[in-house]
Design brief:
CATH superfamily: P-loop containing nucleotide triphosphate hydrolases
CATH class: Alpha Beta
Distance between the termini: 27 Å
Strand content: 15-25%
Structural class: alpha/beta
CATH topology: Rossmann fold
Strand order of the largest sheet: 5-6-7-3-8-9
Largest sheet: 6 strands, mixed
Helix content: 25-40%
Number of domains: 1
Shape: globular
Order of helices and strands: EEEHEEHHHEHEHEEH
Number of strands: 9
C-alpha cells in the first residue's frame, strides 16, 4: 500500500501563480503519517489532490488501490439536521460496527451526545462524531485534514494512540498545525514549504510513538526543530 505524487502541479484560476509546482513524494503504508506546513502552503489542496477531489494541472497520483479507496475528511463537515447522532450512526454505519462505535463514543468522550442533533454540539464534539463515522468505513486510506483541530490536547493524543492501535492496517495522512503532535505520533512526515522556498517538499521521520513506547524528550525536541526549520 502506498500513495505516490509524481511531478504534481496545481493552481486555482491563474496558472502563472501555482499553489505548488512539480512536487514529488511517496508515502508507504500502512501507518500514521503527517503533512505539515505553514498556513497557506497548500496542505489542504495537496490532500484533495491525493484523494482525487482535485485534478492537478500536471502530474499523476499513483495509488494501486484507486481514489475510491481514499477518504478525505475535514473539521468542517456536517451531518443531517433532522437526525440525532445515534440515529445517524445506525443509518449509515454497517451493522457489524455497532459494538465498535459504541466503544469509541465512550473513549472519545461523546457518549452523552448521542441523543443530540449535530448543530447542538460543540466544535470539538462535532470533530469526534465525524471522525468515528470515517474510521469505521471500509476504505483503507484516510486523510485527516485538521480533523481534531477543536479537540483538547489530552483527548487528541488519546484518540491518536487508539487509532494507531485499533487500525494498524490503514494508511493515515494526518494534517495538523501542532508540530509537537506531528513529530510525536507520525512516522513519515511530508513538509510542504511556503511558496517561494525550494525544494517545496521535504520528507522527514517522526517519533512514531504508540502505546507502551517510551518517548525521548530530547530526541523529540530535536525532531521538532528539524521540522520547524524545514517549513
Amino acid at each position: 500500500m502506498f500513495i505516490q505524487c509524481k511531478n504534481i502541479s496545481c493552481s486555482y484560476n491563474n496558472k502563472e501563480n501555482p499553489v505548488f509546482n512539480d512536487i514529488t513524494f511517496e508515502l508507504q503504508g500502512p501507518g500514521f503519517h503527517g503533512l505539515f506546513g505553514e498556513s497557506g502552503a497548500g496542505k489542504s489542496t495537496l490532500a484533495k489532490v491525493m484523494s482525487g477531489l482535485i485534478v492537478p494541472d500536471n502530474g499523476i497520483i499513483v495509488n494501486p488501490l484507486g481514489h475510491s479507496q481514499v477518504v478525505y475528511t475535514t473539521n468542517q463537515e456536517r451531518l443531517p439536521g433532522w437526525q440525532t447522532i445515534q440515529m445517524h450512526y445506525e443509518s449509515v454505519l454497517p451493522k457489524h460496527t455497532r459494538e465498535n462505535w459504541q466503544h469509541m463514543i465512550h473513549l472519545f468522550g461523546i457518549e452523552h451526545c448521542m441523543h443530540s442533533k449535530f448543530e447542538q454540539l460543540s466544535l470539538g464534539q462535532k470533530n469526534r462524531v465525524n471522525l468515528i463515522r470515517y474510521l469505521l468505513q471500509d476504505q483503507p486510506v484516510l486523510i485527516m485534514d485538521e480533523s481534531l483541530a477543536n479537540v483538547d490536547e489530552n483527548m487528541r493524543e488519546k484518540i491518536i494512540l487508539f487509532i494507531k492501535k485499533q487500525f494498524p492496517e490503514k494508511l493515515f495522512v494526518y494534517i495538523s498545525h501542532h508540530v509537537r503532535e506531528i513529530c510525536k505520533f507520525c512516522d513519515q512526515i511530508v513538509v510542504i514549504r511556503s511558496i517561494g522556498r525550494y525544494p517545496r517538499i521535504i520528507q522527514l521521520r517522526g517519533q512514531n510513538i504508540c502505546m507502551n513506547k517510551d518517548l525521548d524528550p530530547d530526541t523529540l525536541k530535536e525532531n521538532m526543530l528539524e521540522i520547524v526549520h524545514a517549513a
